[in-house]
Design brief:
mainly alpha, 4 helices, 0% strand
Length: 48
């Protein structure tokens, strides 16, 4: 559920800093590792 909320916020705002704060990450590199931040379909293309 946490990832869903963060995903919706990121998709609505495009604000990666806000996502970082919501997740409580000190380092932005930790935030960009989340699969929710990949472009739509990137995961499915990589696994097919």
């Amino acid at each position: 559920m946490r990832r869903t909320k963060v995903s919706l916020i990121y998709k609505a705002t495009g604000n990666l800093r806000a996502v970082q704060i919501l997740l409580g990450h000190n380092n932005i590199e930790n935030t960009v590792r989340y699969p929710i931040l990949e472009p739509y379909g990137a995961h499915s293309r990589a696994t097919n």
